Amino acid sequence: MDMLNTTQHFLIIAWWLAFGISVLLYIALDGADLGAGIFSLFVRDHDERGAIMSAMAGTWDANETWLIVAGGIMFGTFPFVYGSAFSYLMVPMSLVLWGIMSRAVALEFRHLASPFWQKFSDGIFGVASLAVTFFGGMCVGALLQGFQMDSPAQGVPNYVGGAFNFISAFSIWTGVASCIAMTLAGVLFVRARFEKNEPIRQDAARWTAVIFWLAIAAVVITWVWSAVIFDWARAKWFGPHFWVWGLFGLIALVCIDQVRRDTLKDKDFAAVLWFNAAAFILGFGMLLTMFPWIVPGTWTIWAGASPQVSLITFTMTMGGFVPVMLMYNWYQIWVFRGRISKLVGHGGH
Questions:
Q1: Per-residue confidence (pLDDT) for residue 333, from 0 to 100
Q2: Distance from C-alpha of 59 to C-alpha of 237, rounded to nearest angstrom
Q3: In CA terms, which of 2, 119, 195, 216 is 20 to 30 Å from 317?
Q4: 109 and 121 Cβ atoms separated by less than 8 Å
Q5: Phi, psi (deg, nearest 5) at residue 331
Q6: Number of structural domains in the chain
Q7: Are 118 and 45 in contact (CB under 8 A)?
Q8: Strand 293-295 with 299-300, pairing
Q9: Range of the domain at 72
């Protein structure tokens, strides 16, 4: 029995880390696509909008797979959290799902449409990218604030709030901050994917100078706001081990400064890598800050986890897929790493 308990505790932590890393991978990989979609709303040239969509044609669907992986891990290893959290976030998650489906249709069928419907697809692609980013950010902010649960004498606790309880000043801000951060990821992606003499890359370079500082301001505001309203965050960040969290911040600052330096030197691919490194460090720092909560104030990873047998069975059947996906995703990125020109927008996907 002790061996089973030890195994269960180990698997709970392992799958909690796998869930967090899957979310961070989705943000890093599909975040660039979403940001490029938001950037496309400000691009006037029809062919340039098509080229932006073509630039992500080889990788966008694999990038979104990490969101499915995160949902599968949540369903298989933390089913009680899955059920209650999706009840709480039914409205914003439905809008995120609408956005993901709309982006997919626009990406796959734009080149088959008439000129009028191509323009319509361009608009849908940009608006849907904005919607996914904003409402996804709202979901993160709402989860950090926790939600109401009943306390039955027997059975599993259920969400008891309303459909719009996820709306708060903080969750709205995290939605806005997500749009700012993902737009920076998007313009860095566009810079890295297009030839240096392309006008669209030059436009993205001009945007970088402004969005970079807006993103830094968004991170600082979010950190200060979190420290003020979340006791669990403040207790760790300013507790006895404050230097650990300061180290996370220092490393992130080094990465962010390297993004600035590389953009000034037109080292576009390096800037993308440093940006993703900074995002990973900040995200992983927040994940560790939340521990052992998976939804602060509502669910710990221990209370929300599956029973022993279910957890072990899930691990035996699904554990091998994650490293395979990592290798496949990296191979795709490597294959499509080269720069392209605007002319690619005239072809099919």
A1: 72
A2: 37
A3: 2
A4: yes
A5: -60, -40
A6: 1
A7: no
A8: antiparallel
A9: 21-229+300-346
